[in-house]
From TrEMBL:
Belongs to the DEAD box helicase family. Keywords: ATP-binding, Cytoplasm, Helicase, Hydrolase, Nucleotide-binding. It comes from Aequorivita ciconiae. This is DEAD-box ATP-dependent RNA helicase RhpA. Pfam families: DEAD (PF00270), Helicase_C (PF00271). Its EC number is 3.6.4.13. CDD domains: DEADc, SF2_C_DEAD.
């Protein structure tokens, strides 16, 4: 199948060929014709599946078929959970619209609002936004959503995980009731189905589950190792393997910082990326990583969501995620575009239960291995002691924060996009 046979215009085909794509991906083959028919679509697709082009191309075609009005009201709204994803989605819109007359912009929190307000004032056909900043700017009358014809919720499962459901409902209330709705989600939980029922109109379900195929293309290795040996093991693997570009996942922001510092001490260039970092720091870390200046990017799940880093050779789970689906998202970062990738998981005794959940989800047994000098010696009693210690540290951390917060007064109220990352 070709992009031309999907009914896309010459202007879009030109942009697609400039990007170097020859064949539409599974999700593109299924979603593009449905969106062009103006159907509401509920699509299961994860990062790496080509989902962005799956909605961006038909949207551009629809908008371009009806000439844009002189004042360019916002005709398409795309909501994303994170700033990085918003920026990437808008980048793709820009590239695909190069030979059309469509204009897009992106708004997200963590950076000054004025340039965003200015861009909106100039008129845009397509707006990509994170929910918090969008509501802020609506509150400031910087934009109106009364002419939106197409709404996309991208990575809707993440938006729910991050507590955006109320914001989404507020935004839905600002849109015209007659519109086309597209919902993309990596997983279909009960909550997603509920949300879909609330705002999609006779949706067509599209499932292009790349998950199994993705998993099959990836070499998965699990090392059983003690918790306190993980840092040494990761340093050994990266140094001895001479791995040039490694994405490492940790469960917490604090853990990401700590590991990144230890890697730096071991002369392995590294940066941490998570929700407590400023937008500038995150962008810098990501571009350093893409350019090869930063060898190891240490990320939390939510911060890594939607990062577009093609052809990553190695992904390491420093800790297993406690949600099995996140494992599939994480390792889906390797083995893209047909290239083989390697996913390594370091599993301590307390994580064996998570490993079982993952095996059940992917329908595959992941036989753990051990390495000389890294044989696990932890016992259940050690795990219990670690848990007690972790609780103590957490309580201490919270009480320190409370004290700090009392001293600082209530001056640091943040909103929207900063929460829970
Ligand atoms: P996404 O799942 O939308 O994040 O896309 C993942 C990556 O695949 C992006 O880098 C896209 O530029 C790329 N991509 C999208 N569609 C295609 C295609 N049909 N052929 C090759 N690469 C593609």
């Amino acid at each position: 199948m070709s992009f031309k046979s999907l009914g896309l215009s010459d202007a879009l085909l030109k942009a697609i060929s400039k990007k170097g794509y020859d064949t539409p991906s599974a999700i593109q083959q299924k979603a593009i014709p449905l969106i062009l028919e103006r159907k509401d679509v509920l699509a299961s697709a994860q990062t790496g599946s080509g989902k962005t082009a799956g909605f961006a191309l038909p949207i551009l075609q629809i908008l371009n078929n009806e000439p844009s009005l002189r004042k360019r009201p916002i005709r398409t709204l795309i909501l994303t959970p994170t700033r990085e994803l918003a920026a990437q989605v808008e980048d793709e819109f820009r590239e695909y619209s190069e030979f059309t007359d469509m204009r897009s912009t992106v708004i997200f929190g963590g950076v000054g609002a004025n340039p965003q307000i200015k861009a909106l004032r100039n008129g845009v056909d397509i707006l990509v936004a994170t929910p918090g900043r969008l509501l802020d700017l609506v509150g400031q009358n910087a934009l109106t959503l009364s002419k939106v014809e197409i709404l996309v919720l991208d990575e809707a499962d993440r938006m729910l995980d991050m507590g955006f459901v109320r914001d989404i409902k507020k935004i839905l209330a600002l849109l015209p009731s007659k519109r086309q709705n597209l919902l993309f989600s990596a997983t279909f939980s009960k909550e997603i189905k509920k949300l879909a029922n609330e705002f999609l109109h006779n949706p067509v379900l599209v499932e292009a589950t790349p998950e199994n195929t993705t998993v099959e293309k990836i070499d998965q290795t699990v090392y059983r190792v003690d918790k306190n040996q993980k840092t040494d093991l990761i340093i050994k693997l990266i140094s001895e393997g001479n791995w040039p570009q490694v994405l490492v996942f940790t469960r917490t922001k604090h853990g990401a910082n700590r590991l990144s510092e230890k890697l730096e001490k071991a002369k392995i260039t590294s940066a941490a990326i998570h929700g407590n970092k400023s937008q500038g720091a995150r962008t810098k870390a990501l571009s350093g990583f893409k350019e090869g200046k930063v060898r190891v990017l240490v990320a939390t799940d939510i911060a890594a969501r939607g990062l577009d880093i093609p052809l990553l050779p190695h992904v390491i789970n420093f800790e297993l995620p406690n949600i099995a689906e996140d494992y599939v998202h994480r390792i889906g970062r390797t083995g893209r575009a047909g290239a083989a990738g390697e996913a390594i998981s370091l599993v301590s005794l307390d994580e064996v239960g998570y490993l079982k959940d993952i095996e059940k989800l992917i329908g595959e047994r992941l036989q753990p291995r051990t390495l000389p000098n890294f044989q696990p010696t932890e016992t259940i009693a050690d795990v219990k002691a670690q848990e007690v210690e972790a609780k103590k540290q957490k309580a201490l951390h919270h009480s320190r924060r409370r004290e700090g917060g009392n001293r600082a007064g209530a001056s640091s109220k943040g909103r929207g996009d900063n929460r829970r990352r």
